[in-house]
Amino acid sequence: MSSLSSILPAPVQRFDRDDEERAYRAQMQVMPITSNRTAPPYGHRKGWLPRTQEDFGDGGAYPEIPIAQYPLGMGKKQTTSNALAVQLDAEGKIKYDVIARQGHGKDKVIHSRPQDLLPKPIDDDDPTLQRPSEETVEENTEKTRLALEKLVSGKISAAMPVRHAEKQAPAQYIRYTPSQQGVAYNSGAKQRIIRMVETQKDPMEPPKFKVNKKIPRGPPSPPAPVMHSPNRKVSVKEQQDWKIPPCISNWKNNRGYTIPLDKRLAADGRGLQGVHINENFAKLAEALYIADRKAREAVEMRVNLEKSKVKTIKEKKEQNLRDLAMKAREERAGIRREEPVAGADKDEGLLERDELRKDRAKDRQRERNIARAAPDKRNRLQREKDRDISEQIALGKPNPNAAGGSRETQFDQRLFNQSKGMDSGFGDDEAYNVYDKPWRDEGTISRSIYRPSKNIDNDLYGGDDLEAIMKQKRFVPDKDFEGTDRNRRREGPVQFTRDVEEDPFNLDRFMTDAKKGLKRTGDDSRSSRDYERDKESLTDVADDDNYSIENSMEKRCKTPPPPSGQLDLDLYRSCRIGQTAVKRSPSQALLGIELRVDLNSASLPMEMLDQFQSEDDLRAFAK
């Protein structure tokens, strides 16, 4: 079988790789590397616009073309960007630590790789870790000293009011060879020696340039590298924790949105703070509570002490009153008290304390009995202990047996809410019926208010002896006045009787006698008629200078005639108040009265009383 090489014809030319490469290089040298773009000549620039920097060449803008042109980039705004170019390391990975190194010097050490967290191996043979030699230490020390002296001298010279002239630098000699050589140049000299000297500086010259410009701050320290853990699934709680609430201002709400309260409080950050309450608050509260309790106990003890003192003083006074009453009763009954035994005063305090203990024991026993038998009664007694009598009357307390002896609790109907309208308590505007019904039953009030209850304070004031003494008629006159009825019982403190119509001139009786045809007998003397008339028509008048005087009104004392031969102006006085008495003073009105005096059955004319100015004149006339 024949091969392919045997079938194909033999090659005419030989292939040499080196010849091919040489031919390619020669072709590349012949090909132009760049193309020079030039503007079209004048007359052929219609529709042509310069778009790249090559269109401008080395010249400026084209004024005949009305567009914005920026030859060589002049006048064009420079666009800035904070994006960094992507850099790769030796392994072809992106260098993310370029961001941390941005703005810092190349010699600054920045730890931005995981290898930086690993401890660096220490080699004892490392030359960088060897101690420096003596010469190196002295050299560095001298440099440091000179630098510090320079700084200190500058500070001192700046602080001094007069600055010394700075020391000039030494002169420098420079060999100068001009480029133009010839006889016509530099006076035919080929070289010159120049002595360079520093110019003298005026120490009083103000600064020429501003050096107080604020230098911008350097970049801050690079952020700490964050080492990320391997990717894992995030839980719901972590997602909620990573939710950052929007910042809501407490002062501004320009658009007027209605912001829920929970959203407003979420931005406050108070939910992230751990509330820690200082234990001193509890200690302070406990101390205040204890102090308040102690103060209350002290106040209560002080009040109880004051009450006991007042009670002791009151009991002493009551005991003194009992002793005085007992002494008065014994003296009145003729009983002689026993003389006090010597040494009894010493035991007086002991007796008082024993009595006080007995009273306290009785009170405690009474409270226990009430609390055991009727607790509600105890509360009611304590509540009504200090109630005023007016409140008790208003609530019906002074009359416990009212309403048929009912034991049910009574309430004042005026204290309840009324379901009626305005017509419940109002009537006609013209009618005067303010008191439409009686307040209480008249008989019940008189029995409950004006009559004291029995057996009150009998053990305190000796009620049995007092009742026996009160039964005796000590202040009863031997002869009562006419018209008095002691057997009649009164239901109140004051008993009123209807007064007969006054007839000062006895006209009604005169007309009655005339109608009946009665005649006056001879033995009916003037004095007896006057006495009967006075006995029927006279009324009591208070013996006072300040009594009211009424016009055309007569009032006379309703008293029997005095005994024969006696004159008692204070007891038997009858008043006649007329027009003449009104013009006088009250004292003169009392003197200008009609006084009827019986002197041995002889009547004194009433007209003669106006002549007397005092009682002495009247008594002298009677004698």
TrEMBL record:
Residues 29-62, 104-142, 203-230, 331-438, 475-503, 516-567 are annotated as: Disordered. One of its GO terms (biological process) is mRNA splicing, via spliceosome. Residues 104-114, 331-390, 475-492, 516-538 have a biased composition (Basic and acidic residues). InterPro entries: SKI-int_prot_SKIP, SKI-int_prot_SKIP_SNW-dom. One of its GO terms (cellular component) is spliceosomal complex. Residues 172-332 form the SKI-interacting protein SKIP SNW domain. It holds the Pfam family SKIP_SNW. PANTHER family: NUCLEAR PROTEIN SKIP-RELATED (PTHR12096). Belongs to the SNW family. This is SKI-interacting protein SKIP SNW domain-containing protein. It comes from Elysia crispata.
